[in-house]
Amino acid sequence: MTTASQVLPFLELNRTISDAGREWQRRAREFARDVVAPTGVALDRMDAADVVADGSPFWDFLAQAHREGFTKLSGPAELGGLGLSRLEEFLAMEEITTGDAGLSAVLFLAPFSAAFAYQLGSPELVEEIARPYFSGADPRLHSCWAITEMGHGSDMLTGHTPSLVSDARGDCVAHRDGDGWVIDGAKSTWVSSGATATHVTLYCGIDGEPLDRGLLAVLPTNLPGISQGPPIDKHGLRALNQGQVVFDGVRLPAHYVLMGPDDFSIAVHSVHTLANVAVAMLAIGTGRAAYEGALKWTGERIAGGRALAEHQLTKNRLFRMFMALEAGRALTRAVYTYNYGEGDEGRLGSLQHSVAAKVFVTDASMALCEEALQLCGARGTLREGVEFADGSRFHPEKLMRDAKSYRIADGENTFLELIGGSHIVAEMQAAQAAAEVPSAV
């Protein structure tokens, strides 16, 4: 099945990309076209419960992605990962996201627990969680990231921002139990892959402590006392199951804990610099799919006796789409490779740059999808999409629903701007204090 996306690949402006990187980009483009896009459309039409049921196309997709390496692109080679650079990983993931953003999010989150175990865990944890995942022996292995709660959404990301963190207490908390912990409470119904994940990367509070003190842990979801709620029925990203993860007296062995309360704010800061730019990367694919589909449609649609693309105003509109997309693409790629590179070397990336990429690109992606639907006219509102001359289809209505979700995911955009601005000001004030520069009177 050919879709509108991947029809017109972007001009690659980076002349330093390796042959291996270009080869993975090509493979990912074909995988997106032949597997990701049609699977995403099929899952978008299904009930949420059916998406995760046995026999769903979701499981075939995940198994094929494992076989072809798309769940372990930058994973450590010594454990079975492909060891690609962060730039090469970005190239492949952009292509996959252009096929379907929800399924791309599943693949992006899949190695979370294994990667955290490898980078921060004990040798015991590496053998228990990281090696089995990167070996690819079990294609159903995949992770979720559990940080938000029903009583705490975007504010869970303020644990690293002293001017914003509150004295609020978490809904999901850990209690000391000898040399281990016991966890009670629930994470929100918005945990991505929460209904299906075999492992969870957990950010939880500590009983009686504010949100800036907690635990970072990785653990299997089959531990006694853990239950996973049904997937929620939602507006967009319907191929990405989201559901609640509940903890009822779950005993957490000490070796599952990667960072404790004294380092928790650093753990939140670190994951925030990575997660926000990752959302921007996913949104780039959605915006790109909208642009490519609109470009193809306007080249075929006859209006006023000639192709819509030949009209002067349409050329202006297409160029504005192209310009916004290229700007977002350049920002996101730069921040992604920098922040993930810093993280791989044990350093913190730039939080304000990550927030800037997330807010700018998700806003731009929403505007691109809206413009694409507008250019398609009434046909753009159809669930079955618009049909091209070659029989392929373009789904601007679906893309617009997907794009809307990303303006809320991993922090609501307006609140993220407050976090980003707070860090800019804090760094400025720290520099002033270090230089003993007085404030202007």
Description:
GO terms for molecular function: acyl-CoA dehydrogenase activity; flavin adenine dinucleotide binding. Keywords: FAD, Flavoprotein, Oxidoreductase. Its EC number is 1.3.99.-. The chain is of the alpha+beta class and 441 residues long. It has three domains: 117 residues, Orthogonal Bundle (Butyryl-Coa Dehydrogenase, subunit A, domain 1), CATH 1.10.540; 122 residues, Butyryl-CoA Dehydrogenase, subunit A, domain 2, CATH 2.40.110.10; 171 residues, Butyryl-CoA Dehydrogenase, subunit A, domain 3 (Up-down Bundle), CATH 1.20.140. Helix content is 49%, strand content 12%. The protein is built from twelve helices and twelve strands. The strands form three sheets. Strands 1, 2, 3, 4, 5, 6, 7 and 8 form an eight-stranded mixed sheet that branches. Strands 9-10 form a two-stranded antiparallel sheet. A two-stranded antiparallel sheet has the order 11-12. Helix 6 packs antiparallel against helix 7 and helix 8 packs antiparallel against helix 11. The N terminus is likely disordered.
| Named CATH architecture of the largest domain | Up-down Bundle
Radius of gyration: 22 Å
SS summary, helix count: 12
As for the CATH topology of the largest domain, it is Butyryl-CoA Dehydrogenase, subunit A, domain 3
Shape: globular
Could you give the distance between the termini? 66 Å
- CATH homologous superfamily designation of the largest domain: Butyryl-CoA Dehydrogenase, subunit A, domain 3
Helix content: 40-55%
Number of strands: 12
Mean pLDDT: 93
Beta-strand portion reads 5-15%
Q: Give the H and E element order.
A: HHHHHHHEEEEEEEEHEEHHEEHH
Structural category: alpha+beta
Low-confidence stretches: 1-7
Q: What's the domain count? A: 3
CATH class designation of the largest domain: Mainly Alpha
Q: What does the largest sheet look like?
A: 8 strands, mixed
